[in-house]
Amino acid sequence: MVSLAFAVPAEAQIYSWRDASGHLVLSNKPREGATGEVKTYAVAGPSLFRTTARPIASSTEGQYEDLIREHARQNGVSPDLVRAVIRAESNFNPHAVSPKGAMGLMQLMPATARDLGVANPFRPAENIRGGVAYLARLLARYGQNVELALAAYNAGPGAVEKYGAVPPYRETQSYVRKITSTAPAAPLSSPPPPVIYKWVVEENGSISTRYSNVPPKGIHYQVVGRR
After folding, report:
1. pTM of the model
2. What is the tens place of the pLDDT at every residue in 17-47?
């Protein structure tokens, strides 16, 4: 799709008629030897038009802008980054389902959705809330390194920790490049609030609950709040 820009109109003439097959013909020159009805239209001269390859923002994308800004602000994440992730994940299709089972606008996996308290991943308000919270969790985990957080969002934290960098997977590397080229700096909208992690351990036959602002390694944990 292209957009058109107009300068001050100058008169030019467009002629129209139907050929022997009944097809509508448009031309900037009159038909020689024309008989019958020939319609003419005064329009801006062709030199006064210019085109651009920049796509016009879709109405589908715009209708989620308030949700994106609200949850980006609450989680201290750049709305530009959230917008770019949604575009790469689902192209703003709230009903999208990947071959692996990821769902909705931010393509949440079932286990991730449950952990984030997302009851209906196809409901935009829930999906964006959970997806932005998960993205903020990954940014905190990797010291606000956007590339590592995006790689973990795409391939999982285990893959990032295995290689200590963006994994050498073609899909993941392409995914990271695509998003960072759209939101290159991805500045935070505000300093991220510290995350509180909760997990359960068993020691000497007794079970205890632990809390920390640093996620434990190799143990299942929950995010229970922000200070």
Report:
1. 0.60
2. 666 656 566 666 776 665 555 556 554 444 4
Count Cα neighbours of 218 within 13 Å in the Cβ-side half-sphere. Answer: 1
Grouping H, G, I as helix, E, B as strand and the rest as coil, residue 4 is strand
Rg (CA), the chain: 27
User: Cα–Cα distance between 42 and 30 in angstroms, integer?
Assistant: 13
Query: Is residue 89 among the annotated active site residues?
Result: yes
| Domains: count for the chain | 3
Cβ–Cβ < 8 Å for 82, 135: yes
Catalytic position from the list 89, 147, 161, 202? 89
Domain that residue 22 falls in: 3-52
Same domain? 46 vs 74: no
Which stretches of the chain are assigned E, i.e. beta strand? 3-6, 11-18, 24-27, 39-44, 49-52, 195-203, 206-212, 222-226
- pLDDT of 127-177, one tens digit each? 999 999 999 999 999 999 999 999 999 999 999 999 999 999 999 999 999
Q: What are phi and psi of 47, to 5 degrees?
A: -70, -10
Is there a domain that residue 112 lies in?
yes
The residue among 114, 126, 157, 140 whose CA lies nearest residue 195 is: 140
Q: Which residue has 């957009």 as its token pair? A: 3
Q: What share of the chain is helix, strand, coil (3-state, %, to 5)?
A: 35, 20, 40
User: In whole angstroms, what is the distance from residue 96 CA to residue 82 CA?
Assistant: 17
